[in-house]
Amino acid sequence: MRVFVTIGSTKFDDLVQHTLSEEVLLSLKKQGYRELVIQCGNSTFELASSVADGSEQKFEREGISIECWKFKPTLEAEYDRADLVVSHAGSGTILDVLRKGKRMIVVPNETLLDNHQKQLAVALEEKGHLKASTVSGLAQAIEDVHKAQLVPFPPLDGARFAGILDETMGFI
Question: Boundaries of each Glycosyl transferase family 28 C-terminal domain copy (predicted)?
Fold first, then answer.
């Protein structure tokens, strides 16, 4: 099984570094994961210099094959191949992943302005669509997400948005 970790375009050093910790790797292994792909963005962590030029770094720890890289033009293929996505709480990432019906753990980057990511993560967890976690709680969240009965995210309904927009603009 494969897990994909993405932090978007910001720095989220704590999440990247903690994902590579023995605690998290052993939790992944216990749940049957054998592949870990990390999109590390501009984070500073132990291997940051080896991917700074845009290259990929591949290695193994705790019996898990790990791949790290900074950015790719699109993450669509990574979402498709993943059995679990661990992500910062960026709304675009969350919507993309949930619409694919993937298991998801969201770890808000609490260093960002007004901590808006935490509000979004908590709201979606309360609706049963995903698991929200802190960096330090990630190992437990990995176990919990597999026990949870997650609620499928509703499909995109463009007509609904158009209706809201028309009403807001006074067209109806």
Answer: 3-153
HSE toward the beta carbon, residue 23, CA cutoff 13 A: 10
Q: Are 99 and 155 in contact (CB under 8 A)?
A: yes
What pTM, to 2 d.p., does this model score? 0.89
Radius of gyration of the chain (CA): 17
Which residues of the chain carry a pLDDT beneath 70? 113-115, 158, 160-161, 164-165
Three-class secondary structure assignment of the chain: CEEEEECCCCCCHHHHHHHCCHHHHHHHHHCCCCEEEEECCCCCCCCHHHHCCCCCEEEEECCEEEEEECCCCCCHHHHHHCCEEEECCCHHHHHHHHHCCCEEEECCCCCCHHHHHHHHHHHHHHCCCCEECCCCCHHHHHHHHHHCCCCCCCCCCHHHHHHHHHHHHCCC
pLDDT tens-place string over residues 71-110: 999 999 999 999 999 999 888 999 999 999 999 999 998 8
Angle between helices 22-30 and 138-147 (to 10 degrees): 10
